[in-house]
Amino acid sequence: MRDLIAIGGSTAVKRWGFVAMHAAIAAAFMFLLQRFFMNASQETSLLWALFFAVCAAGLAYKQSIR
């Protein structure tokens, strides 16, 4: 992580970029898992995706400030 920061750019922008990327990937993964592999409804899949995105963003943020 420190190597990426040393390349250039703002630390805060990179941190929030990683948090957003982590949340988006977690949401997409959970949506696809629920919707297509577990045959859940679209509403249920979106709720699970939102829940996992928030959890993933929280974890990524906690890791980024260490």
Describe this structure in words.
85% of the residues lie in helices and 0% in strands. Keywords: Membrane, Transmembrane, Transmembrane helix.
> Share of helix among residues?
over 70%
Largest sheet: none
The pLDDT mean sits at 89
What is the radius of gyration computed over CA atoms, rounded to a whole number of angstroms?
15 Å
- N/C terminus separation: 11 Å
* Poorly predicted tracts of residues: none
Order of helices and strands: HHH
How does the SSE layout of this entry go?
Elements: H1 2-7, H2 11-37, H3 42-64
Helix pairs in contact: 2-3
Name some characteristics of this structure:
transmembrane helix, 85% helix, mainly alpha, elongated, 3 helices, membrane, 66 residues, transmembrane
Outline of this structure?
The protein is mainly α and 66 residues long. It is built from three helices and no strands. It has one domain.
